[in-house]
């Protein structure tokens, strides 16, 4: 699908059709990074607004979907960085006796309250471990966890080779395993 | 005992990693696309309406050009009228008399000029 400025209503209609075609993929891509539905939809909105703003910069050297998902990854990583800075600031606030509301991850209510709490703790541990990864490992690993992408598509989004993607995924898994074990070891000791 | 603890920790880590595989597939909110287009319209009204405004801009430009031509022509006419000097009544009469006073143009013969002696 190519976007052309053929007139006001035509380009609006084309863009609206683009949103309809890719909104699910974009939202779910963002969701893999932020693990929160509301945040994922907010980021997805920003992705499409950025795409609209930069339409004239799109050179057509990649598929429009690849270009969109690249923006989604960038915006998601930006969100995680902002969240990290906010967390640091929150811990400073806690030192002086001020609390920020706890951000809860979306979880389907299942099992007993203690099981739900355990699930919540696992998600928090997972979030912390993922956030500590370098951006390229984080991106390759999280995109690989979403069925919508194969390694070739991930390589196109990250503008790298398939072998580089495979190596990044392998390293990310090893690092995550190490970090999670470290977290649980300190919890159970 | 230590071995059991290590195994337990490893299992917990594995279970935690598997959670990513069980994440639900989100369905976009039915108003998601509408909200996106509304936000774009709010933030970029010029971009969305650029072709319409371009047409109106052409009309305004043509009208401005027409007005400029009319005003310019008016100034030129007024200036040329001002540049011509005002001629006095005396000068007009003098000029007319010098132009029309030759004997060749007279309607009648000047009687005083007739030589009666020749008769």
Automatic annotation (TrEMBL), chain B:
Protein name: DUF3379 domain-containing protein
Keyword field contains Transmembrane helix: yes
Keywords: Membrane, Transmembrane, Transmembrane helix
Species annotation: Prosthecochloris ethylica
Taxonomy, superkingdom: Bacteria
TM region positions: 60-78
Taxonomy of the source species: Bacteria, Pseudomonadati, Chlorobiota, Chlorobiia, Chlorobiales
């Amino acid at each position: 699908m190519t976007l052309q400025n053929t007139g006001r209503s035509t380009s609006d209609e084309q863009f609206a059709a683009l949103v309809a075609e890719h909104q699910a993929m974009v939202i779910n891509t963002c969701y893999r990074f932020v693990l929160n539905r509301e945040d994922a939809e907010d980021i997805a909105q920003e992705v499409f607004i950025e795409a609209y703003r930069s339409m004239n910069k799109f050179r057509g050297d990649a598929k429009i979907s690849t270009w969109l998902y690249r923006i989604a990854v960038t915006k998601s990583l930006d969100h995680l960085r902002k969240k990290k800075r906010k967390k640091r600031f929150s811990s400073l606030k806690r030192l002086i006796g001020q609390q920020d509301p706890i951000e809860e991850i979306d979880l389907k209510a299942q099992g007993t309250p203690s099981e739900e709490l355990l699930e919540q703790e696992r998600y928090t541990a997972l979030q912390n471990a993922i956030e500590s990864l370098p951006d390229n490992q984080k991106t390759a690993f999280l995109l690989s966890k979403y069925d919508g992408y194969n390694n070739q598509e991930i390589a196109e989004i990250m503008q790298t080779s398939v072998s580089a993607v495979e190596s990044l995924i392998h390293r990310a898994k090893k690092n995550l395993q190490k970090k999670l074990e470290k977290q649980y070891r300190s919890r159970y000791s | 005992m230590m071995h059991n603890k290590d195994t337990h920790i490893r299992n917990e880590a594995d279970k935690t990693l598997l959670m990513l595989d069980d994440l639900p597939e989100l369905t976009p909110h039915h108003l998601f696309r509408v909200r996106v287009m509304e936000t774009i319209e709010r933030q970029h009204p010029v971009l969305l309406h650029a072709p319409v405004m371009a047409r109106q801009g052409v009309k305004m430009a043509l009208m401005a050009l027409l007005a400029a031509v009319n005003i310019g022509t008016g100034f030129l006419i007024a200036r040329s009228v001002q540049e011509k000097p005002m001629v006095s009544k005396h000068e007009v009469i003098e000029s007319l008399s010098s132009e029309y006073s030759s004997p060749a143009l007279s309607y009648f013969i000047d009687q005083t000029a007739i030589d009666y002696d020749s008769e």
